[in-house]
Structure formats: structure tokens, C-alpha cells
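task queued by scheduler; priority normal; single chain, no ligands, no partner chains; default sampling; output format set to C-alpha cells
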Amino acid sequence: MITDTITCCISAITQKKATAEKKQSADEFQKALASLSKECQLLSQSLDIIQGMMDYQIADSAFIDAGLKNELLGAVGQFGEGLEGGQLSKENVQVFSSNVKQLSKDVSAAWRECSSHYATGISGYLGIIQGLTDNPKEVDELNSGIAKLLANDPSPSSAKKLSADITQAKEIIARFSLKPEIEAFLKKVASKQATVKDLSPSVIAWLEDQMLLTKLRISF
């Protein structure tokens, strides 16, 4: 797997630095090594995000572009060879840096697309039933947290957090068992468009089953 291969290469590069420091100008090497170390951290973070998305089934397969994958593998391989010979090219590090940053952008874009699909409909349902739950504040905070996860750039912990929040949201939603007629009614309630005419026998029966009759208020 690409993530395993690159991770192993990063580890090998780190282990080679002691040997290389002896064969190349200390100042030049340290600058290049510091830059390389920074980019390797960013790469590792991107790989962790990818792995998390796959582990929690937010994405069903690795989504690294084939061309970028080959560039990354080639660059990491070159660093390994260069360090064996006691050299670390600043130019190569810059090329590698460009590819790593592109990967980070690709991962963020993939996260926004895949996480949005993963959470499809959840926020809408939470918004509908929020005022009818025993703890509206908790539901609002949960819904806001999910929205932030979907909108922000991901971190290695994002997939785990989103998975946990969606599971909690589904448990809340499941307790309401929304049928199309009920969902339509609650959408009207949420948008303050519901009228007495919308209180059909089925809606009233559902509200009674859910012990929600006393939570609704009529205003003129």
C-alpha cells in the first residue's frame, strides 16, 4: 500500500541522517534536513488522514493521484540514495515539498467531498428534531460540531471524531423513526410554516407516541 511504502521510506530517511551529517557540509545539510523533516511531518499527517478516512469508511479506497504517488515515491527514494552518499539536495527537497503540499490540498479536497457524502442528511434531520428532543442544546452542539468538521481542513483525528458524531446523531434520529408525512410536518415546524391544518391524525398519533404533544405551541 502507498501509505505503508512512503511511511517506511520516511523512517529510513530519518535513520540515515547521522551518517550523512559526517559527509556533507554541516550547515548546508542541516538546512536541507530541517526542510525535509518539516515536509515529512506534513506528509505523515496527510497519510494519517487518508488512513483514518479508510478505517472509518469515509472513503472506500486510497485516492492519491497515480502521478503524484509516483512522484512522491521517486522523491523519497532519491533522498534515501542521497543520504547513503552523504548528500541532500536543496533542489530535490523543494520539488518534494511542492508534491507534499499538493497532496495535502488533494487530501483536504477529498475530505470535504467524502465527509459530506458520509454525513448526507444528518444535519438536516438534526435540525428538524432539535427542538423536540429532551436536550436541544446537546443536539445543537452536536450538529454544529459536525458542520465544522465538514467545513474545516482535516486533521489525523477528524475521521474518528466525525464517525463518533455521526453514530451519535443516528442514534438520536432513530428514536424518532421519521416517516415521509412526519418528516414533511417537522420541516414545516422547523421553518415556522406549520399550521393547525398540518396536524393530521397520523401526525398527532406520532406526536403522542413520542410524547411530544406538550412540546408544541400554537401561536397567532
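post-processing summary
- The chain is about 70% helix and 0% strand.
- The mean pLDDT is 80.
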